[in-house]
Amino acid sequence: MLFRSDLERRDERIEIGYLIGERSLWGHGLATEAVSRVIQFCFEDLALHKVTSGCFADNKASERVLIKNGFALEGTLRNHFKLHGRFIDVHRFGKIASR
Length: 99
Hints:
This protein is α+β, with helices and mostly antiparallel strands. The protein has 2 helices and 5 strands, in the order E-E-H-E-H-E-E. A hairpin with a 4-residue loop joins strand 1 and strand 2 (13-19).
């Protein structure tokens, strides 16, 4: 599992990304658990206000990971990436600390 993060200290915000490259590990709840622990760390240890993430609009499994972890859909970036010769939408999600 690979994680990427961009921390914006001034705005108390971080963007996270995740990827499970090994297909045999898909569907076992690993990403859901990992994202849960990362956002717990972000809110409790880093005292951040918001965590954001995104996924390709057709990646329903990744969308479920975010929704299960309390993220809300904040918008769609239309035709945002070109992949295999076609433009695809990206869904943007956010979760705000409950203080």
